[in-house]
């Protein structure tokens, strides 16, 4: 059965060739951490974990930040969030068109 011997090497070549078809890494998931609890005027630095289509971490991608309620929690371009008033807000990071968010709770004094 000579045809079976040739089948295994051909399958390995096909498998290796598929690895190259993934293409360049693209952002597929954005995770925002931590989800802090702050007092009014307190700050916390948020971070993003970006994953590509293979689940690997990505670095060097610029992200923009926004707050669902800047009157409760304001966020700077650097990802630093500041408690403004008592309540909760979702802070969203958008990186290459993909967004992820985390909740920030602000406590009054």
How are the SSEs ordered, and which strands pair?
Blueprint: H1 2-19, E1 29-33, E2 37-39, E3 43-45, E4 47-51, E5 57-58, E6 63-67, E7 73-75, E8 80-83, E9 87-95, E10 98-107
Parallel strand pairs: 2-10
Antiparallel strand pairs: 1-4, 3-8, 4-5, 6-9, 7-8, 9-10
Spell the H/E element sequence: HEEEEEEEEEE
User: Which range best describes the helical content: under 10%, 10-25%, 25-40%, 40-55%, 55-70% or over 70%?
Assistant: 10-25%
Mean pLDDT across all amino acids: 86
Radius of gyration: 22 Å
- How far is the first residue's CA from the last residue's CA? 81 Å
What does the largest sheet look like?
4 strands, mixed
Q: Widest sheet: strand order?
A: 2-10-9-6
- The chain-level structural class is alpha+beta
